[in-house]
Amino acid sequence: MHFQDISFGKGPKDPCPICGANIRLTEVEPHPNRNDWELNGYSCENCGPVKSLVVQRSVDDMPPLLTLM
Fold first, then answer.
1. What is the DSSP letter of 8?
2. pLDDT digits over 2-25, tens only?
3. What angle do CA 50, 53, 54 make, to 5 degrees?
């Protein structure tokens, strides 16, 4: 069985859509309507803010469920 790790490829994994340089996660905000989602903002050091994604929060980051007795 053969495995290939794409991290050893040439160039950044998630390049800037404008200049092709590396981008990094710079901002994480709660979603305005959903507690189980968040907004992730990415920036390029050359171009500034270039991309944002709506992603589901990890289970570890979610507040505990309210239980009624």
1. G
2. 444 444 455 557 899 999 999 999
3. 155
